[in-house]
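Records of this kind hold a single protein each, on a pair of labelled lines. With that in mind, the following record should read easily:
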Amino acid sequence: MTDYTQDNDLWIALQDYQHEDRETLVMLLNLYNQHICHVISSVDETKLENYWVDYEGCRVTLDDMICGYVNHLNLHIGQIHELL
């Protein structure tokens, strides 16, 4: 079984983004992130310290996940700017 959590390049290659239409990818990124913004804005703030245990056994709070997503998105935006 392949462990996609340990091989980001494999995960990206399997999704074959390099052969996807650019406009489709931009639309996907836009709509997906609009939905994520909606979900985040709907979060009950009293639940931000709720947590789950990730694949490495670490506790991750909802607040950590939200902040982590924003940081992850900024990483990808930086990568896109480098490619342009």
Notes: The beta strands are 51-53, 59-61. The CA atoms of residues 36 and 42 lie 10 Å apart. The two ends are 36 Å apart (CA to CA).
